[in-house]
């Protein structure tokens, strides 16, 4: 899969807090995400769930506001990321929420299946804390937020290789 990047124009980080829902079963990755988010200075409200089933339950809970964006791992217990993603995109009340796959998998099959299920972006989990911060800033810039609301013309994988382009 070719790793292209949409526009590399500099854009401003949103001023309003971004409501983020993270579905990640690994506690260390949950903590890393939270720390990188804090360090990035992106105004945000983070909700964390441990698996795909809890992700769907949270999204369908009438007492919980819908997030502005969802980050999810592929390999989770109870319901994996691909299954949860397909369920989200099949629901008229949830399908327009940008869903970002955050995974260590570089497997073409995983990448293709998540895009076919409706992923807005596929991101390889960075190996360094600094790269994680850069990744979050890139995803949350206003330009990216607008780009994530519509399907990309070609499948794109954001990774440490192209994060600074």
Helices and strands in order:
Layout: E1 18-23, H1 27-40, E2 44-49, H2 52-60, E3 69-72, H3 81-90, E4 99-103, H4 108-117, E5 121-124, H5 129-140, H6 142-147, E6 157-158
Helix pairs in contact: 1-5, 2-3
Structure overview:
- With 165 residues, the chain is of the alpha/beta class.
- It has one domain (18-158): Rossmann fold (3-Layer(aba) Sandwich).
- Helix content is 37%, strand content 16%.
- It has six helices and six strands; from the N terminus they run E-H-E-H-E-H-E-H-E-H-H-E.
- A six-stranded parallel beta sheet has the order 2-1-3-4-5-6, with helices on both faces.
- Helix 1 packs across helix 5 and helix 2 (52-60) packs parallel to helix 3 (81-90).
- The longest helix has 14 residues, at 27-40.
- The model is unreliable at 1-11 (pLDDT under 50).
Task: Round the mean pLDDT to the nearest integer and report it.
Answer: 81
Number of domains: 1
Q: What's the architecture in CATH terms?
A: 3-Layer(aba) Sandwich
CATH class: Alpha Beta
Q: What's the β-strand tally? A: 6
Structural class: alpha/beta
Q: Report the CATH topology name.
A: Rossmann fold
- Unreliable stretches (pLDDT < 50, length at least 5) are 1-11
* Strand order, largest beta sheet: 2-1-3-4-5-6
Q: Give the helix tally.
A: 6
Order of helices and strands: EHEHEHEHEHHE
Helix content: 25-40%
Features:
single chain; alpha/beta; Rossmann fold; 6 helices; 6 strands; 37% helix; disordered N terminus
Please sum up the structure shown.
This protein is of the alpha/beta class and 165 residues long. It has six helices and six strands. It has a six-stranded parallel beta sheet with strand order 2-1-3-4-5-6, sandwiched between helices.
